[in-house]
């Protein structure tokens, strides 16, 4: 039988070899008791060897665990920090010389708090200083009131 050598063969390939349509090949395979599973034709009823495979695998895994227990094979490593940067930007009115501030959220990682606070660029610092100087002048206060 063709399936003895190659279980991955398609009905189209068998049909081309035998000069028969693929639907005819499919019907005959179904009559013989074959089922297509993940592109592999397997007998619907398992043989003695196929029934014993899971038992032998379980037996070998059990013996392997007796010789070398699983926790001893487990590899543990150092913590890995993953920085979570969730930037929240808010709109606000400002002078052209000042830059916008960025608000950052707090993030807990491995029971520790990772926090980032907003920073001021030099343009913001300069703008705030100019604003403070302008507020100290008496003529500016007269315009405001």
Automatic annotation (TrEMBL):
InterPro entries: HTH_bacterioopsin, RNaseH_sf, Transposase-MT_Hybrid, WH_DNA-bd_sf. Residues 3-29 form the HTH bat-type domain. GO terms for cellular component: condensed chromosome; nucleus; site of double-strand break. Signal peptide: none annotated. It comes from the Eukaryota. GO terms for molecular function: DNA topoisomerase binding; double-stranded DNA binding; histone H3K36 methyltransferase activity; histone H3K4 methyltransferase activity; single-stranded DNA binding; single-stranded DNA endodeoxyribonuclease activity. GO terms for biological process: DNA double-strand break processing; DNA integration; double-strand break repair via nonhomologous end joining; mitotic DNA integrity checkpoint signaling; replication fork processing. It holds the Pfam family HTH_10. This is HTH bat-type domain-containing protein. It comes from Teladorsagia circumcincta.
């Amino acid at each position: 039988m063709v399936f003895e050598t190659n279980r991955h063969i398609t009905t189209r390939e068998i049909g081309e070899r035998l000069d028969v349509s693929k639907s005819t090949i499919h019907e005959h395979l179904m009559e013989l008791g074959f089922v297509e599973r993940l592109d592999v034709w397997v007998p619907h009823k398992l043989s003695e060897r196929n029934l014993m495979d899971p038992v032998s695998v379980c037996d070998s895994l059990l013996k392997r665990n007796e010789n070398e227990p699983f926790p001893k094979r487990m590899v543990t490593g150092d913590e890995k920090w993953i920085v979570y940067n969730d930037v929240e930007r808010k709109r606000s009115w400002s002078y052209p010389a000042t830059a916008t501030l960025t608000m950052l959220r707090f993030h807990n990682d491995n029971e520790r708090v990772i926090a980032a606070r907003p920073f001021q660029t030099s343009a913001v610092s300069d703008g705030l200083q100019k604003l403070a100087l302008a507020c100290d002048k008496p003529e500016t206060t007269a315009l405001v009131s």
